[in-house]
Design brief:
It is an enzyme of class 4 (lyase). This protein is of the alpha+beta class and 459 residues long. It has two domains: 17-163, 60s Ribosomal Protein L30, Chain: A (2-Layer Sandwich), CATH 3.30.1330.90; 178-455, 2-methylcitrate dehydratase PrpD, CATH 1.10.4100. The protein has helices at 5-8, 17-35, 51-54, 61-69, 79-92, 107-110, 154-159, 178-188, 192-200, 206-229, 244-256, 265-281, 297-308, 317-334, 339-342, 348-362, 367-379, 397-416, 426-439, 452-455; strands at 11-13, 43-50, 94-95, 103-104, 111-114, 124-131, 137-147, 150-153, 285-287. Strands 5-2-6-7-8 form a five-stranded mixed β-sheet. It has a two-stranded antiparallel sheet with strand order 1-9. Strands 3-4 form a two-stranded antiparallel ribbon. Strand 7 (137-147) and strand 8 (150-153) form a beta hairpin.
Amino acid sequence: MFLSVFDMFKVGVGPSSSHTMGPMVAGGRFLDLLREQPFQVAGLRASLHGSLAFTGVGHATDRATILGLAGFLPDSYEHAAAEECLAQIEATKSVSPEGLGTLNFDPKSDLIFDYDHPLPGHANGMVLMATDAQGDVVVRETYYSIGGGFVVTEAEQSEEPIRDKADAKTHPYPFETAAQMLEMAAKSGKSIAEMKRANELEHMGPASLNSGIERLWQVMEDCITRGLERDGILPGGLSVKRRARNIHEALKAEAGLNLTAPHTINDWMSVYAMAVNEENAAGGQVVTAPTNGAAGVLPAVIMYWLHHVPGASRGKIDEFLLTASAIGGIVKHNASISGAEAGCQAEVGSASAMAAAGLCAVMGGTSMQVENAAEIALEHHLGLTCDPVKGLVQVPCIERNGLGAIKAVSAASLALRGDGTHFVPLDACVKTMFETGQDMMEKYKETSLGGLAVNVPNC
């Protein structure tokens, strides 16, 4: 099993990796499929199922699907160009993806929210179709958005499930579990980040790896900066106010007056995370870490480390991200990072575990302490539901990222106080998280049919 650092961390667009980025990616894959056909198609259709239908509007799944079928991709997304394209599609009732000409597509009739027929492969399912001149479907493909911007077809999901997928390429340190990771670290004398780097270098040169990681942090840092500078009301109808800017200004003022209480450091962690998730909620550029809904946790912990921990150095950010991606890969391979599949424990819980591991590593933790930090953070998110009010990635998601960052720092600190030995192995915690997610009622898994989503007035 090999999941690259660039699989776990993807540059994309808010508000959701599974509900926004995934459908956009699926649209791009479908266009590629059509370009391979020996005949010309005349029109496009799409149907959204399961969680993609129930919270699709709040997560901008409709916009993402339309834009994906028009040729937009998350990594190169430009907001102004997208808005212009959407207006043109509404006016002409057609899309013009590169190499396929002009295709009939009326979002009002050709994009269907199917609430009654969930697809069997995953809660986030969608069917994309191409039609001929008579309107008959000539190409059909089912896609599942399985979290973190990952997309698989129905055939890929059924024939070779992603969590059981064997990696065909040989890597120096092919660990699939935390136990294997620790064993390899002990035998090799290398850190988790060093092993992860060695695996990455099987696929790319050191310059590409270093520049790619540098870009990831730059996008994360820019997202925090924008979030700390902007105010106003977030879109979607809940009238949620951006709070990060005001909190940040207050924190800076208090620090200048030397009036800061010790516990205020928690507010710094929270405000960095909230800045990211307010940007995500507004449809801004973020990095999946490992998802959009949990995108604020890890960059908040890095920012906390850089600005509040003596001895921190930007030169070690690659160690942080490589360590975190190793932990995220273990979670994704053996469980899930999808809120629609396993609740928010799979999103913010995984993000907190990744951030705890990364922080522990750059603060001098051993591999055993890093594994311990990740386990502590994940364990204390077990059972966390995903119940976004009105289907928007705002309440409780924005604050939840702040608390996930605080837990990550606490977990790393506790692990560093010990010698790495502990009672619950990370692998057992990951297994428990997935089993808990399987047992969790569907209404608590990103459908907005239970929890806060129904007990808080939202209109």
